[in-house]
Amino acid sequence: MTSRKAGLGRGLEALIPIHGETTSSRPPGQTSANGSSMFRLINPDGTVRDRLPVTLEEMKSLYADMVEARVYDDKSMAMQRQGRLATYAPFRGQEAAQIGAAAALRPGDWVSGTYRDAALNWKAGYPWKLLILGRTGDERGGQVPEGVNVMPPSITVGGHMIHAVGLAWAERLKGTDRIALTSFGDGATSEGDFHEAMNFAAVYETPTVFLCQNNGWAISYPVEEQTRSETIADKALAYGMPGVRVDGNDVIAVLVAVREAAERAREGEGPSLVEAVTYRLGPHTTADDPGRYRKDDEVAAWEELDPLVRVRRLLERSGAWTESWQQSLETEASNRIEEAVAWAESVPEPEPDDMFKRMFAEPTPNLVEQEREATGRG
Amino acid sequence: MAELNIAQAINSALDTALSSDDRVLILGEDVGRAGGVFRVTDGLRNRYGAERVVDTPVAESGIIGAAFGLAVAGMRPVAEIQFLGFSYPAYDQIVNHVARIRNRTNHRHTSPMVIRMPYGGGIGAAEHHSESTEAVYVHIPGLKVVVPSTPKDARGLLLAAIEDPDPVIFLEPIRLYRAVKEHVPDIYYTVDIGPLRVEREGSDITLVSWGAMMRETRQAAGILAEAGVSVEVLDLRTLSPLDRDGIVASVEKTGRAVIVHEAPLTAGLGAEIAATIQERALYSLKTPVRRVTGWDTVFPLKRSEHHYLPSVDRIVAAAESALED
Questions:
Q1: Which of A121, A183, A366, B202 could anchor a disulfide with A211, C-beta 3.0 to 4.6 Å?
Q2: Which position among A293, A317, A358, A372 bears the catalytic label?
Q3: Which CATH superfamily, name and number, covers B2-184?
């Protein structure tokens, strides 16, 4: 980026301005009345707007990750229907935003995300098998390996954003160059906690990256009705931090924007907000029927902007994509996920005393008594 | 060894913690330059700098949420909420995150942090400044709740809370901040979280209280003793986990109990204590357990406070009625 000090948003816009796009290439439901620019490097048809800052091999690897994430998502939906998983919140359509963001992080960086961030968490080091174990309804799924600094998915909306301020703050106090990224949806920006998190991060200049996956819908409430701000990125201005709007279905645009925000944070220049404009192709959760509040043609328009298809087209243009490669990616991903599922389903049922033992470092006397009662050892 | 009141004892504990552990930092509204609205953090910013004694924006959820992140990533934050009645904007953070992260991650992530909250009435403050809703936090699994009533316990309990590997709510009795003075050792010492303190031994009746109401309870005990009653006084000090064994042991000896608290009667901590006594010491009881508490009303403003707060007379009357049975 040319002008880091001048601010993230301006830096990116200077690189690739996308003012005045035609209606056909601008995602429906995400238009900006004043033509706010949106950073994009790969067009929906797979052509590129500029030289990409990745090698072909890196591109293929990111594509493979997105394919694997989708296999996981599809598998999870199917398993929920079979009664093998608790309620599931699919991320279909948001793979580029999540894989691109995580690809911009370094080992040891903190991630504080939501129930819809399995792809982000996985790419940041959270093993599929533990994500699946968690979704079967088992707290042991939250026990990420040492060295993986990914917080368990936040189920309540918005409260986890400020955690990335404290986490990042601690790393600065400890003298590391780790940063913290928090991921949240457009819906969470209406929570008061969004304000407190953004303000604290800016006031204390913590090395925090705010990643908003603006997927257009807070369950049934469209983003246009949630806010009178032109864009989510615009909100950064009020906090005195850079805000940038990127095409969230463009994995490289997300990677570049988040990497720049992360490097900015690492260098002590404080927090940034990245708005990744994307779309939730599936329901809010397996308990939701989106047909009640949104039209099929809107979904169909976004299917055309599928983040995986876009990269596949790019790779096809480069002669790097073949049907057989696609099949081998899917098969290998499916095998890994099946293996993770088999592991998760082989984990023995929790013992009745487990829940008493994880309340405190040492169980309190009343917990010891209740544990005896619960286990019949009283 | 210096003669300190409770506010000074808490200050001394914070001072000791800041000087002995680099991971400790204080954050809250007006804790730095102003030294806290009750001057409890007075002088600490000058001694340890604005990086470790951090003034924050007016945002309770932000304070607790940021402290939580700091704790998870290895620091030992001591967050101050100016008054217990101001803690509710942070309730989501405390209940849904601070109290649960160990369980949610099966011990992988923890939140060793202290949340200091001055509480209680009797100082003629504005609305929301006098709450005594400790039961709200005692009810939450994953939290410990402590409340000192003496300077010595204040220093020792706070150092124990800062050392504790789990989150601790540290309640500070506003109207006792400067009411009692005693010699407080300046060496590093802790008071265990859990055990109650038998403040006065006796065999006829047990008075159970904690925090600010210990003053009236002590006075009532003095009056009863003068009348020839052998009174046992328990200062619970830790409200969660409750020292059930200590309470039961005392009531087994005396056969009578009066529980005194400032919070409203209904679903107050007195109910839990009374239930414990009837579960475990019913056959030792000579008379029903009495509760002397605040009323089920909003905590009143200055001119009605004396109608609300349990008085020494009410405690003595409850004890006399128990002794007549």
A1: A183
A2: A293
A3: Thiamin diphosphate (ThDP)-binding fold, Pyr/PP domains (3.40.50.970)
